[in-house]
Amino acid sequence: MASFSAEPPRIGWVGAGRMGAALVRRLLAAGYPVAVYNRTRAKAESLQEYGAEVVDRPVDLADRDVVFTMVSASDDLEQVTVGQGGVLTAADVAPGILIDSSTVSAEVSASVRAEAAKRGTELLAAPVSGNPKVVAAGKLTLAVSGPRAAFERVEPLLGELGQGVTYVGEDEAARLVKICHNVFLGVVIQSLAEITVLAEKGGVDRAAFLEFLNNSVMGSTFSRYKTPALVNLDFTPTFTMPLLRKDFDLGLAAARELEAPMPIASATAQLIASAIGAGLIDQDFAVLIEEQARRSGLALKPENVEVSDGLEAEDDR
To answer: Is 178 a catalytic residue?
Structure first.
């Protein structure tokens, strides 16, 4: 693989959904040549105005120095890498480094890693924390695992994607880190819903309660970011309930395997399942506050208050 010191590495990208597209735009803005594949071609074509090249199959990216994959599930990762027309199936060429930023099982990641090694490709697991607005604000974070030397080669490239890149170990360590992160995400939003509903039942406006919380030592980037949704009941999805349930399934499976009891996460998983059973499928996972209110005998109404989410796009600063 050619040295990155002479010129920017040629990038391939598989998966141009909302997150993938936002990250591709950052790489293009930083001057990297990027070719994109997406199953729905129109989503990839929307990136052409920013300078992206569009290809018809993942295997068409096999000659790239670095290929990122960002897909929805374990089966999708297998398909775009080692399935028919996958990026690792070209007869005589393979990318030097494959960086997977999907949230998938450690078992599938290890399987793809082994297949990549047969082609001379090093795999880095690099799941991300954030969403398109977080990406635009330059606040995305990544946990990365795999060969340390490969990580060091692409660390400057990964740094273009957000504010924090953390190497967490060899092999599939980053998969567990991301699953733990997303389980915590669900536990925190459920807890936040519970205390916000409690305060409102006692006569406190959600906006006032959350302003106090966000300015206290218990406030966080996450609580501030979710405040507009909780106050104004705008559940435009950033992360849906079925995706959250998938991550809880992965987290609880890991907990069983590692003999690590997770009573709070287990209870939260049941509440998530209940909300999905009630039909809360397409909304953002902050919609858990509506289920909490229903169980509490409280009918929520949007407060129609302008509140900040604490995120500001870098271009707006």
So the answer is: yes
